């Protein structure tokens, strides 16, 4: 990771979601689908349920590691469909740690860094897992900080996550933008006062009842081409 002082003049601070926004989850989805009877729609339901139960933990005050939630929900989903999971399967955390970056990401992040933006990862993954993910994908050197929700024990899109992240970086909301491929993530950040950019990855859509993002882009390269300084 690069390191810079929050007081250093810059174009603004960009907070990036990691899973799906920066990293390609197709390999993970295929592995989960295979374990659930080779049914891709069950893998999609699994990930939706992972997000659901992370929020259940947030509202009930019972925080669990994201990787542990992923495994628990896989077990629950398998039971729902009467499937016995293989005993010696690769742990999901190992698959998640090795997910590759989308083809546009390294070029887009490099362009944003060259424009003077401070790049920060803000993820629901644990700090250790996020470090492995971004290092494996070759992206870690582009980020000033990697921030995990485990440090505040609540999951995005709880407003406390975004408020803590801005405070951690010493920046006001007006100088910050959340970049994510999830409507709930940009919606939460917008409610916390951040500017937002929605990355329209395949299969992703905005939630109509959430505040509209400031930008909608196809990928990170497009964001780098369109963005204007935040501060």
TrEMBL record:
Record's keyword annotation contains NAD: no
Pfam families reported for this sequence: Hydrolase
A molecular-function term among this protein's GO annotations: metal ion binding
Keywords in alphabetical order: Hydrolase, Metal-binding
InterPro entries per the UniProt record, alphabetical: 2-HAD, HAD-like_sf, HAD-SF_hydro_IA, HAD_sf, PGP-like_dom2, S-2-haloacid_dehalogenase
UniProt keyword annotation of Plastid present: no
UniProt-listed SUPFAM superfamilies: HAD-like
The EC number(s) this enzyme carries: 3.8.1.2
UniProt catalytic activity: an (S)-2-haloacid + H2O = a (2R)-2-hydroxycarboxylate + a halide anion + H(+)
Source superkingdom: Bacteria
Protein purpose: Catalyzes the hydrolytic dehalogenation of small (S)-2-haloalkanoic acids to yield the corresponding (R)-2-hydroxyalkanoic acids.
Family the entry assigns: Belongs to the HAD-like hydrolase superfamily. S-2-haloalkanoic acid dehalogenase family.
Protein name, as recorded: (S)-2-haloacid dehalogenase
């Amino acid at each position: 990771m690069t390191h810079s002082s929050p007081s250093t003049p810059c174009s603004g601070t960009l907070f990036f979601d990691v899973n799906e926004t920066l990293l390609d989850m197709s390999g993970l989805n295929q592995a989960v689908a295979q374990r659930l009877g080779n049914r891709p729609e069950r893998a999609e339901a699994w990930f939706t349920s992972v997000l659901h139960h992370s929020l259940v933990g947030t509202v009930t005050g019972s925080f669990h590691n994201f990787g542990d939630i992923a495994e628990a929900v896989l077990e629950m989903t398998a039971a729902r469909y009467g499937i016995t999971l293989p005993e010696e399967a690769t742990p999901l955390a190992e698959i998640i740690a090795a997910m590759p970056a989308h083809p546009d990401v390294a070029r887009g992040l490099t362009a944003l860094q060259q424009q003077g933006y401070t790049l920060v990862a803000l993820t629901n993954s644990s700090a250790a897992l996020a470090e492995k993910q971004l290092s494996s994908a070759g992206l870690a050197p582009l980020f000033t900080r990697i921030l995990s929700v485990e440090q505040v024990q609540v999951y995005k899109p709880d407003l406390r996550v975004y408020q803590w992240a801005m405070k951690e970086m010493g920046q006001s909301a007006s100088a910050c933008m959340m970049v994510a491929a999830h409507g709930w993530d940009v919606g939460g950040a917008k409610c916390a006062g951040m500017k937002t950019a929605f990355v329209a990855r395949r299969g992703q859509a905005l939630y109509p009842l959430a505040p509209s993002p400031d930008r909608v882009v196809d990928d990170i390269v497009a964001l780098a081409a369109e963005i204007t300084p935040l501060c």
